């Protein structure tokens, strides 16, 4: 369980140079939709690269992989998927500007809101994962309609 409140950014930094298995799975599904299997059910190269990493994680019973352990092709495929995701969980109801330590709208800590533009893709996804797992922010409850992302 990640730390709460002001320590949220520390949690993101601690896991920022890794990719969680759920993000890897989402990237695989993105590439499967974008480049379906070809003749003989052969997977597209990006899907193959990600699937090999995913299989290794399943066999090792691990839920995250360090960036430096990813083959470059898998990392590039993951980053291409990442670029299709919404950058920020903000729903334009920021209670940190009212003095809250944690935004009621998106669930990020004050530090995460302030430092968001400078966070790496891995740190941002760690924050997204935490706030999604917590599910307490208004983006997941009372104002969920504001959080509906347009998908391409």
From TrEMBL:
InterPro entries: DUF1289, DUF3717
A matching Pfam family: DUF3717
Name of this protein: Predicted Fe-S protein
Gene source species: Comamonas aquatica
């Amino acid at each position: 369980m990640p730390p709460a409140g002001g320590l949220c950014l520390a949690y993101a930094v601690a896991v920022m140079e890794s990719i969680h298995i759920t993000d890897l799975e989402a990237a695989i599904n993105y590439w499967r939709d974008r480049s379906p299997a070809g003749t003989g059910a052969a997977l597209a190269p990006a899907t193959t690269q990600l699937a090999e990493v995913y299989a290794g994680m399943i066999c090792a019973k691990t839920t995250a992989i360090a960036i430096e352990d990813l083959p470059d092709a898998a990392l590039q495929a993951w980053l291409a998927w990442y670029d299709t995701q919404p950058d920020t969980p903000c729903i334009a109801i920021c209670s940190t500007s009212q003095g809250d330590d944690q935004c009621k709208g998106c669930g990020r800590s004050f530090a995460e809101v302030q430092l968001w533009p400078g966070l790496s893709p891995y740190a941002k996804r760690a924050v997204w994962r935490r706030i999604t797992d917590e599910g307490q922010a208004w983006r997941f409850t009372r104002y969920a309609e504001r959080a509906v992302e347009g998908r391409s």
